[in-house]
Amino acid sequence: MLLGVDVGGTFTDAVLVDDGAIHTAKVPSTPGAESDAVMRAIDEVLARAGAGSDEVEVFAHGMTVGTNALLEERGARTALIATRGFADLLEIGRQDRPDLYRLCTPKPVSLIERTLRFEADERIGPEGVIEPLGEDEPERLAGLLEESGAEAVAICLLFSYLDPSHERRLAKHLRQRLPGLQVSASHEVLPRFREYERCSTTAIDAYLSPLLGRYLGRLGEAATTAGLPRPLVMQSSGGVAPAEEAARAGAWSVLSGPAGGAVGASLLARLSGDGNALGFDMGGTSCDVCLVEDGEVRRTDSRRIGGRTIQLPMVDVHTVGAGGGSIAWRDSGGALRVGPQSAGAEPGPACYGRGGAEPTVTDANLVLGHLAADSRLAGDVALDTGAAAEAIDHLAGSLGLDRLATAAGIVRVANQEMVRALRVVTVERGVDPRGFALLPFGGAGPMHAAAIAAELGIGSILCPRASGVLSALGLCASDRRRDTAHTVMLSGAELSGERIAAEVGALIAAAGGELDDARAEVVYEMRYAGQAFELPIPGPPDPDPADLTERFERAHEDRYGHRDPEGEVVLVDIRLALVVPGPEPRPVAATAGELGQDTRPVLFGGEWVETPVLRGEPAAGTRAEGPVVFELPEATLVLPPGWSAGVDDHGTIVARFLSHEMGGKGTMR
């Protein structure tokens, strides 16, 4: 049995996979005590499956703990040790502005206070040691850290990616002298050039590691007490690692939650489609989108989160603040806006009846008939139509609109936020979205899928059977993965097959650990001499330099429209991933006879249409034509007129757009 648990901002999802059978549970998240909701979700899914905790073989966990701590600036009290004269590196950054045309837009506040930035009397240059690290310097710095009350320290010295001897001495001394202090050294976190990115990533690692260590420690103890395996934690790169390893390296788990959804989307894109899909995860707080090509989710090695740079391998996910709990409001110019503020898990949308009074996307969907007043959402949440109407009426009055126009406007504005996010990962990167299926998931995603597909010209939708908990299912399917990278700067005669193979071999030896049977995935970052940035070129661990150079020049021509026959090619970085393939669960559609049928009025194109509603998990072969509403256990798929849907052997609802014509009754068979 495979167990996956994903902690979101509003709900915590659990999936138990038992030889194709999928059991699910969804409970409200418990902000500040996330492990409580995790264990409650596990208890519920085990009870539904009639299984015991001792039958679980793998327990994989994804979370937003690190992401939220970074965005909300509530990580550990962190110090920085930098080479003398470089203590303000994080504030100087790249000397760019958050917004090109808003000169006064402030940069994010530094994670490290000025009083906690310390300078080491040392200096290493590209050719070697310029000023040695004094014998007493590690103890002097340890004393300053002890007096400062810091919980963590980031060590980032110049050129430590070439010569880490000074960082090693400092880190070793601090770990022995101050055993309770989290020490993150840049040569361990990110042994690559570019000083600012290395320092920023190391600072984030130090800032988050104590918080994640405490959380994962509590979760590990609770799992052991319950008789479960120790958790494997989803990394930003889309692979899992033991909790103890993840706790020591907080920066690697910043995108833990979205990564699980991306892996789940790639699994279903392979099983129910042709492997090409746009993953679209709309939860209660935010929306994450990703691109799946040939069954694999795209990855990147750099991202800004909350305005802060983190340069580590991660799934290429773009996030916007548009979820079911996103709050609708009127801005100072009188325009209707949605998000990024969210009602969260507590109190939640007004229709949850828990004290929320502001209108949200979920309230609008209830008023429009996309959700039913007599339905109970996952997590056993009952809906209050009166509370939703009252919240929307209050906003409608300030906008000068009626209730339905306001509700429809809220949904349209939220949809446009998500369309913009999908265009970032497609159109802005030269990808035509019309060649992909839209794969919606998350509790709210399928409700908005048809409108978003129409906006992007997409003609097919893949709605997974477990769409409301697909991120948790993705955790069950995740590979064991360990990533690392190193700057080598090889060109000319040094760019030889023997030298490259030796560098890759050293990386494998350093990262291997317990992954002896792992597959090595290598990416070579290359550029022409004098260029500022590199192109990633995948290749074998022992490549032919001539072939590698040819593939780089071909990629350069594809990207920029030209190649430089006279240019010197430089291999800048080598990125390595050691991968142990994970299980590939194959969901099986529900058996026939479990589907309930009903009708209710739903607003389509400004008109109320009496619409068939299918409740439960549809069996393979079930077909329906729009307008129709599928009320799945954890999500609701709304298909307007013009769409036709069928259910495949994996329980995925495969919907196709047939016509632009509106009107007509939905049919079922």
Quick summary:
This protein is α+β, with helices and mostly antiparallel strands.
Description of the structure:
There is one protein chain. By secondary structure, the chain is of the alpha+beta class. The chain folds into three domains: 75-211, Dna Topoisomerase Vi A Subunit, Chain: A, domain 2, CATH 3.40.1360; 255-478 and 621-669, Nucleotidyltransferase, domain 5 (2-Layer Sandwich); 479-580. 31% of the residues lie in helices and 29% in strands. The protein is built from 16 helices and 38 strands. Strand 34 and strand 35 form a beta hairpin. The longest helix is centred in the N-terminal third of the chain and has 31 residues, at 195-225. Mean pLDDT is 89; it is low at 660-669.
Helix count equals 16
Q: Based on helices, strands and strand pairing, what is the structural class?
A: alpha+beta
Structural domain count = 3
How confident is the prediction overall: mean pLDDT?
89
Per CATH, the class of the largest domain reads Alpha Beta
CATH topology value of the largest domain = Nucleotidyltransferase, domain 5
Strand order of the largest sheet: 3-2-1-4-11-12-27-30-28-29
Beta strand count: 38
Q: Mind telling me which CATH architecture of the largest domain this is?
A: 2-Layer Sandwich
The parts where pLDDT drops under 50 for at least 5 residues are 660-669
Q: Can you give the helix content as a percent range?
A: 25-40%
| Proportion of residues in extended strands | 25-35%
Task: Describe how the helices and strands are arranged.
Layout: E1 2-7, E2 11-18, E3 21-28, H1 34-49, E4 58-62, H2 65-72, E5 78-83, H3 89-92, E6 117-120, E7 123-125, E8 128-131, H4 137-148, E9 152-156, H5 165-177, E10 182-185, H6 186-189, H7 195-225, E11 232-234, E12 239-242, H8 243-248, H9 256-272, E13 277-282, E14 287-293, E15 296-297, E16 299-300, E17 303-305, E18 308-310, E19 314-315, E20 317-320, E21 326-330, E22 336-342, H10 361-367, E23 376-377, E24 381-382, H11 385-399, H12 403-425, E25 437-441, H13 445-456, E26 460-463, H14 470-476, E27 479-491, H15 497-511, E28 519-528, E29 535-539, H16 545-560, E30 569-580, E31 596-604, E32 607-615, E33 623-625, E34 628-631, E35 636-639, E36 643-647, E37 653-657, E38 667-668
Parallel strand pairs: 1-4, 4-11, 5-6, 5-9, 9-10, 12-27, 13-25, 32-34
Antiparallel strand pairs: 1-2, 2-3, 7-8, 11-12, 13-14, 14-15, 14-20, 16-19, 17-18, 21-22, 23-24, 26-37, 27-30, 28-29, 28-30, 31-32, 33-36, 33-38, 34-35, 36-37
Helix pairs in contact: 1-7, 2-7, 4-5, 9-14, 10-11, 10-12, 11-12, 12-13
